[in-house]
Amino acid sequence: MNEIIIYSMITLAGLGIASAVILYFVAQKFKVIEDPRIDIVADNLPGANCGGCGFAGCRNFAEAIVKAESLEGLSCPVGGATVMGNIGQAMGLAVEASEPKIAVVRCNGSKAHAPAKVVFDSASRCSFAHSLFSGESGCPNGCLGLGDCVVSCSFDAIHIDSETGLPVVNDNCVACGACVKACPRSVIELRYKGKKDRRIFVSCINTEKGAIARKNCEVACIGCGKCVKVCPFDAITLANNLAYIDFEKCKLCRKCVAECPTGAIHELNFPARKEPVAASEQTDAAV
Amino acid sequence: MKTFKIGGVHPEENKLSAGKPIEVFPIPQKVFIPLSQSLGAPSKPVVKKGDVVKVGQLVAQGEGFISSNIHSSVSGTVTKIEDYPGAAGYRSPAIFIDVEGDEWDESIDRATDLKRECLLSPEEIVARLKDFGIVGLGGATFPSHVKLMVPAGKKPEYLIINGVECEPYLTSDHRLMLEHGEELMVGISILMKGLGVTKALVGIENNKPDALSHLSKLAASFPGIEIHPLKVKYPQGGEKQLIKALVNREVPSGKLPIEVGCVVNNVGTAFAVYEAVQKNKPLFERVVTVTGKSIPKPANYMVRVGTLVSALLEHSGVNPEEGMKVIGGGPMMGKALTNIDVPVVKGTSGILVMPASASKRMAEVSCIRCSRCTTVCPMGLEPFQLCTESERGFYELAEKDRILDCIECGSCHYTCPSGRHLLDHIRVGKAAVAKMIRARAAK
Amino acid sequence: MNLLTVSGSPHVHADQSVRKIMFGVIISLIPAMLVSFYFFGLSAIILTLTAVVSCALFEFLIQKYILGNVPTIGDGSAMLTGLLLAFNVPSNLPVWMIIVGSLVSIGIAKLSFGGLGKNPFNPALVGRVFLLISFPVDMTSWPLPQSFSTSLTDVVTGPTPLGIVKEGLKKGDALTDLMQQVPDYVNLLLGNMGGSVGEISALALIIGGLYLLFKRIISWHIPVAFIGSAFVFAAVLNFANPEAYVNPFFHLVTGGLMLGALYMATDMVTSPMTPAGMLVFGAGCGIITILIRVFGVYPEGVSFAILIMNAVVPLLNKAFKPRRFGV
Fold first, then answer.
1. Fewer Cβ neighbours under 10 Å: the N or C end of chain A?
2. Interchain CB distance below 8 Å, C5 and A133
3. Fold that domain A101-286 belongs to in CATH
4. pTM metric for this prediction
5. Interface with chain A: mutation pick from B357, B424, B426, highest number of A CBs within 10 Å
């Protein structure tokens, strides 16, 4: 009996030692020499592998940083300034200051504002609907509301509001840009998050002439240009019957919001105005 | 009897208007002639607001290699050139003409006698088709003159004429074969001459015995033209399937029919070719089937391009009802219209009205891996796989599984017991894969 | 304003649905069900009903209260699983056991993989094999058939023809003597033998199978490959040594081979997608069945054979692609 125990112990121990030796040499032979700094950088990254930085995953991004030896043009949208600061410190590199951004849905053609003129009955996929027809409301530029952006989001940050039929971005958004790429109509844009989350933007991207745009959607930008004239900072441009507010120039003065005749310009997270604004009763829908 | 080998389905034929002779549709008060009526670049208008035009007058010039000329279908005054919503609801430029009388261009021979002899040389035939705006009338609207210009190094052997009309409901080609058989035959001979081939094979499904026997009789006096009956099976009208059925050759993946020595044209195109070459008549009207089970009077009309679909429906006694689906083309490959006030274009082969009760898709449930989509796919693909790959965004895999070979015939969706939106997703996947390949080529 | 419907092509649909397929299979099982009711009486009816009802109920409860999905029992797939599970067990099995089997079939083999269409293994067979391994005695004591009886207790149990042969050969009895003890071929075809509820009558199952083929619910590939390969393999063995190996026809009409080849192996979800794959799949099932029957421990091997081949279906799908056009 004892013999059995002894023999089996010896055999097992021998096997173990032999395997360890073999493994050691194999590991030596196939060792991959990697810059240890890649691990340091990767440890600092959020590890979500969202691809928002433009690389396939966090590790690829870390490799790119180490290879580039500079942080110019490289930024992790998820971690933002904090993470990039930590990486800069670890690598001894200068960090570019970047203002945090957030995804903004530039369409307010809700079911009420832009009523359906046809009924869509096919795969619930914006990219398909976009190739099939102009949309239930008839607006060829507006949100189709079928949720390609929702599917693309890895952060649970965008959802379709069942009442309006439009996507709503919440605070989980890290501005990785996946939804921007997923949207076949480029409705979503990454804009500065703004101080205290305050943002002003034109919630319409319809480039048709005013009358036609208005026929499909009562809150469309009609390209009247009033906002351009009133803007003291030259932040608003008008092209193809559509106003666009440059978020880098906009100082959030809110003059344009009051001026817009169709309520296409939205302000978010501002305190209530002292005097009532007649022109634009804001809907929360486009938050 | 001949047919293609892989896959195929047998949808209900419902050829309701097969016995209805072609009626000339009344000229409307106004026409809207879109500038993009063929595959390729939109045409450039050569008239301006206020111009008075005659029937058959050139109003827009094709630009670029794949593009075609467009002629006025009515006489009257150009009121404006502006964006007008097309079938999909997207706006594109169109010429608006207010109709006054019906004055034809003097050069057009309006006599109905048959002109058999074609005196033009092959080059002149090609030029004539280009000038007279002839495009493929089977649905894809590929400019016909481009089809006749065979690339260097390729030798055409057969002209294949598509008289299959495998789409359920549609009867425009059927009626054309019955009522304009002689003209058709002359048109085919002209195409043969233009292409430089001695043999033309006309494929007709044997659900049209009258057309088969009529054309077979006529073919006796036209050397080189053979009429072939084909077993009924959808999508036999697809050019790759038709070539396989008639000459038993397979067009290689990603290649054109000329690769196997074939050029395919529709019977409607052959008729248009006859009129253009022998009668100097540009393509500005076509046969349109207006049909549907709920329609009081299914019919075949000779319609001027630019006539509104709503006028056709009204003439056929259709009451618009909520939830109804109006389809431009047949039920398998046609496009649902977003608006009935859209003009008939060169590619409109039929208007099919589905009542509200029949226009909704069945509810989608899980794939049960029954493999019917794979069995019926005429290209030997695995639609369930391509659908999933497209849904998940695995476009590299989809490319390897030959998603670009899909001819979008819809057999997979038609047969799916789970009601999966197979073709919708495959279409998205095709577009994404094509984009990916272009991006790769650009690098 | 009249709202038009807009959808992608095609705009017509074949008159088919999952529900129609499932109920088609259930209809095709009616002849076999009637035969079993005739030979096994009330106990078979109770067992079948219990299995069908408990499978449907488990599917409903799990989907509604655990998964939070919309229950899909309307499609009939759970009922079909219950029916097939009942067909694969002896008719005198205690009712609580078949309920446990139903729970395993629906809960573990089907819904834990994501429900209809996503299960890699045939749910009814998983339930059956679970019962066979857990309760070997109850699962292998088959009541002998008698014309319609309503008695639930005093049934006479005995071995199946396959069991008689297997045990006999093990003891060293001569094959010719053993063949005297089993019913003749007419009775084997009609189902007058010991066995599971639904597997006994090859004739009734073939009638149902022809209905399935006629309705195009199944294709011929799997049954033909399954039955053909089993027959050929058994024939080769029999030819090599007629003293030790039984006549191949005997293999075809006994045990669950017909039920397996026509109903279990042809389950769409767990079988390959292409004709070539189906042929390989069927052939594999047939050969493994005979291997287990002849050389294995168990007298019957259809369930194991099909489950083993279910496991290689993804590989078969990779290996056998349909013939592409123009390649």
1. N
2. no
3. Alpha-Beta Plaits (3.30.70)
4. 0.89
5. B424
